[in-house]
Amino acid sequence: MDYLIHLNLTIMTKLSILFFSCFLLLISCNTDEKSKYGIAVSFDETVGAESKDGRLLLMLSTDDGKEPRFQINDGLNTQLIFGMNVDGMSAGEPVQFDESIFGYPYPSLSEVPPGEYNVQALLHVYETFDLSTGHTVKLPMDNGEGQHWNTSPGNLYSKPFKITVGENGITNVSVVMDQEIPPIPEPEDTEWIKHIKIKSEKLSEFYGRDMYLGAHVLLPKGFDEHPEAKYPLMVFHGHFPSDFGGFRTTPPDPNLEPTYSARFDLDGYNIIQQQEAYDFYKRWNEPDFPRFLIIEIQHPTPYYDDSYAVNSASQGPYGDAITYELIPYIEKEFRGMGEGWSRFLYGGSTGGWEALAVQVKYPEEYNGCFAACPDPIDFRAYCLTNIYEDDNAYYYDSEHKKLEVPSHRNYLGDIQSTLRQGNHLELVLGDKSRSGQQWDIWEATYSPQGDDGYPVRIWDKMTGDINHDVAEYWKENYDLRYILERDWDKLGPQLKGKIHIYCGDMDNYYLNNAVYLMEDFLESTSEPYYDGEVLYGDRAEHCWNGDPDQPNAISRLRYNSMYVPKIMKRIAESAPQGADLTSWRYE
After folding, report:
1. Of 80, 399, 435, 546, which one's alpha carbon is 20 to 30 angstroms from that of 139?
2. H or E segment and range at residue 471
3. What is the dihedral of CA 402, 108, 104, 88, to 10 degrees?
4. 42 pairs with which residues across the strands?
5. Burial class (CB in 10 A: 0-12, 13-18, 19+), 195
6. Is pTM, for the whole model, over 0.90?
7. Which residues contact 93 (CB under 8 A, 6 or more apart)?
8. How far apart are CA 301 and CA 142, in angstroms?
């Protein structure tokens, strides 16, 4: 009996030692694994003593040409980025990036190939908003840059330095953010261009803090000399403009060093841009050129550089704020006519969608839209996804073959990126639709607000599985083709002659597919017939805007004059009896 007890104790002791040894080995393995792929990131007290919330980003680059923060994109030349949320990050306290942190294009630090890299960290700072919906959310406030994480004033970042990723991973790397992006100066008024900013009561109420809208206003020739004149208004929609673009009162700078445009394969494109801006100034001053006000609006949101100019559940009442607060203020300040028949909308891409959407949502407040290469205007062709019938956005339906859906091509059809890749980049830059990028802003604009106060996902950001309940919400509220078809009995008489759409048939983002579907509906209309225009550019890329004679590189610089003849024709045909058609037609 004593022998058996002794034997059992011996066995138990050996098992205990073996278990403890394995436990120590496991701890050792985990420690080695963490240190193998560990990069510690902190910020210095010199850039702020207060704790901060936000999205902490770590970047690695093999390209010495620019800082890593300027080399992140969803194209073939992208560099590496990893991201995580931080809440209450304190100065001097490091946050660890290890192999569990999601990245792009490599999902984990453990997959980064050996080599020499420039490393850089950046904190995209979030602020707390107490919304009128009762939700509290953390979002990146625009700080005058147009909602760009890599240039937003107040964001913290580190200077790049070299590290080596070896066969055994990344070890003993500490990155300290001791730089802060400085404020951006406000543009200055000139003889021709004025800048305004107003507090929006509607938006301030929604966000629980003061919110502002701005605009750059181009005045017509003779504005001061003709105080009796009142003017039609041209609203040029698009991404966040730092100032009024494409207007220059002097010839191109003779000392300007020519630069190459890879997009258009043109040498000296910067000189071409200056020449076109000067040519527009000369046209603007010609005796027979109609006298208009042209405005470019600043309406960034915490989700993007642009609100999409409509009301939405998560972004608030931007449509009403622009149409009923900003536009009337501008017209009062600069002698606009202030009537729907005298207002016109135009723009390309985001601005193209906005021009059409605002015309549809506010049919009697505007007298015509010219929508070039608009973002998807029929969600059966949400680029290459049918959100109503497809189950997954990232992959084509197939039982045996896994083929990714592309998201960007050139005019020959060569693919540069896929839908999954672009969405995974956005997920690294920010969760809860907070990346500030394209797919997320569509979601922030079109989706219902979730229980947490953020937009509800149209699809699972990791897998691409589509939420068809959300798709139905999108359809009823923002699918422009569906809304027009559903409500044509009411909208048709208000929109007759007002809809003009232009798109290249090789649009880089496949936006022409939705335009085809919209055209099918518009051409089927009766009582009334839509009486507008849909045109396509042969082999034209994004953003063809209706000029049959000039390439994109040139026509995109002529938005402010190319639709004027059609606008003048529309005014002549539609202005109400007794409308002022003369005070603004001076030479």
Report:
1. 80
2. helix 468-478
3. 130
4. 176
5. middle
6. yes
7. 42
8. 7
The residues of the chain that CATH labels 3.40.50.1820 are: 193-242+277-378+480-574
Q: How many CA atoms lie within 13 A of 445 on its CB side?
A: 27
Euclidean distance between CA atoms 184 and 2, whole angstroms: 85
Alpha-carbon span 88 to 349, nearest angstrom: 38
Residues 555 and 547 sit within 8 Å (Cβ to Cβ): yes
CA nearest to 365, candidates 331, 408, 314 = 331
Residue 117 is inside which H or E element, if any? strand 115-130
* 3-state SS class at 391: coil
> Burial of 107 by CB count in 10 Å (0-12 exposed, 13-18 middle, 19+ buried)?
middle
pLDDT digits (tens, 9 = 90+) for 111-149: 999 999 999 999 999 999 999 999 999 999 999 999 999
Q: Which of 291, 283, 197, 195 is nearest to 246 (CA)?
A: 283
Report the alpha-carbon distance of residue 493 to residue 531 in Å, rounded. 11
CATH number of 193-242+277-378+480-574: 3.40.50.1820
Q: Provide the 8-state DSSP code for 336.
A: B
Task: Yes or no: say if 540 and 554 are a contact pair by the CB < 8 Å rule.
Answer: no
DSSP-derived letter for residue 295 is E
**Contact 271/258 with Cβ under 8 angstroms?**
yes
Query: pLDDT by residue (tens digit) across 436-483?
Result: 999 999 999 999 999 999 999 999 999 999 999 999 999 999 999 999
Q: Which two tokens stand for residue 225?
A: 């000399």
Separation between Cα atoms, residue 16 and residue 27, nearest integer Å: 16
Please measure the distance between the N-terminal and C-terminal CA atoms of the chain and give it in whole angstroms: 120
Is 50 exceeded by the pLDDT of residue 14? no
Beta strands in 419-562 (DSSP E): 499-504, 533-537
